[in-house]
Amino acid sequence: MPDRRRRILVLAICCLSLFIVGLDNTVVNIALPSIQQDLDAPTSGLQWIIDAYTLVLASLLMLSGSVADRVGRRRIFLTGLAVFALGSLLCSLAPGLGWLIAFRAVQAVGGSMLNPVAMSIITNTFTDRRERAQAIGIWGGVVGISMALGPLIGGALVQSAGWQSIFLINIPVGLAAAALTWRYVPESRAPKPRRPDPVGQLLMLVLLGAGTATIIEGPGHGWTSPGILLLGSLALAALVLFPLWERRVAEPLIDPRFFGSIPFTGATVTAVCAFASLGGFLFLNTLYLQEVRGYSPVQAGLWTLPMAGLTLVAAPVSGRIVGRRGPRLPLLVAGLAMAASGVLLTGLAADSPGSLLITAYALFGLGFGLVNAPITNAAVSGMPLAQAGVAAAVASTSRQIGQSLGVAVIGTVVTSVAAAGSVGYTEATHRGWWIIAALGLVVALLGLLTSTARAAASAARVAARLDPPRVPVQGSRSEPLR
């Protein structure tokens, strides 16, 4: 097989793994009302079904990437596919809410071995700078496509075969990806793999887990209850200690020097904002369409078709624009489109016309489709090859953190006023839509600030610090200054 064909096949295999992981981020949303009815779950339980997956995924992405660099990327990739398939099977068999949340965490353990490892495989497979940018653009586009198609695919599966089917579909896809990986993806390791950072990993787990638990459980237990105060204190302590520790350790979980790059920092914040918007959008929209308007899962999924369609169109276009002209235009349009969608939905009513919903969904799909490729490209742009996988893993982590926060914060802001399906729920969602509109404006602003000459210079300085040129010693046969 010619080299180029093999590279494209490796990219396709990596994108297939990303597709099922991204799909599972959103496909579950459309099944929430059915799961709530079958398992008698409260609204906070529905938030945990989403966040158990995204939180564990976010917490372990960096660890999985570093382990793969050390023991072999293909080996960890295959392990991740096996664990993800097992977790999916267990989710389909879950007898109760607690079991389902626990098995979602197992799924996420497998998923954490796929995204950063696949990105490392891609960056080491595509050595040409332009080809790599295009491959990363396609990769970023698949993130948006998979997550946008989730409600559509999920609706059809839930109505035809029950909510368990949204997990069972992962098994044949995962097995096919594993077979292709075994046959075509070569084994690779980092020349100098990073050492584990167990303290940093523990602090991240405490920060994300305790912080999210505080937000989700606070309204139900009372913000001043002993348990919530303890969780909040643990999260705050981890937030303070994490950056202090990372500056001291020789090989940190997240290298603080990365954040000296304006494009990298901007990509991280953009990922959090964009995916917080997505998490909140899908959570509120699913409950509104099924609990307020009374639509079936298939009908609810079909209403999201404008969003999925625009994401499908915009994602590859964004990848091409980023590869040729940079991230500014896609980020600017993405942020404004997502903000406009949120503003339109701040007037949502139980009997809002379909034209309002279609327009708002299409605008959100356009924005979300455009935003993913520039996030990944900006994160790895200018980074040394050895650091590209780590930088991409930080971007992936930021996506999962953003979605977790979106479901936790926006869901809590709305449901603390009115429970899903109750009188006043639709009006309560207006608060959430305003938050989504504000997040969109932040994305647009970051698109302007992170694409300047000053931003590019900061990325170059960080790259030089991370991969300094070797200066020859007089009389030696060292490599010349590059």
Quick recap:
The chain is 79% helix and 0% strand.
Describe the protein's architecture and organization.
- The protein is mainly α.
- Helix content is 79%, strand content 0%.
- It has helices spanning 3-26, 32-39, 43-71, 73-92, 97-112, 115-125, 129-161, 165-168, 170-184, 198-221, 226-248, 262-292, 297-303, 305-325, 328-345, 354-380, 385-415, 425-449, 453-466.
- α1 crosses α7 (129-161) and α12 (262-292) packs antiparallel against α16 (354-380).
- The protein is globular and about 60 Å long.
- The two termini are 34 Å apart.
- Residues 470-482 have low confidence and may be disordered.
Which terms summarize this structure?
19 helices; globular; 482 residues; mainly alpha; single chain; disordered C terminus
